[in-house]
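--- STAGE predict ---
source: upstream dedup step, 1 unique chain passed
mode: sequence only
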Amino acid sequence: MSVFIIGNFVEFVFTNNAFGNFPGRYQNFFSEGNFTFDSKIFALLPFNYQGAQKSKNGDNISSSLTLPANPLTLNWVQEAVTRPCIVTVKTYQLTDSYQPGALLGDEVWLPTALTYNTQVIEMELSSGIDALGAQSPNLRISREAVGSLPSTGAIRSG
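--- STAGE serialize ---
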């Protein structure tokens, strides 16, 4: 039997410095203190990441982070949902010694909603393009960023 170990790195960047020394960086697999990767320090946060899900129409791309329910976590998730925040999640296949190996996913999200009960808090994450009613990142497609762009709707072949 083969074992397939997956670990997640999550990074929260508040665009208005809501928490001062953020970004907050967390991982969910190394339980012996902080974990340093790519010259960044990630603290342990017991969370479950459910990757991208989309509807049959392809118009609703979302995922979620599930965290243990307590007053601290609830307050923190409420701040992430109500203030401008960008969440980056990287998923890696881990080696037997719990070192990141192959990159399986690199996703960028906006926190858009939360649900909770006495056991868990779920932070809903939506794509910046599909986040209805949310502040999308203010980025523009430009020639400098992506190269030559069409200036008309006319497309010629050949």
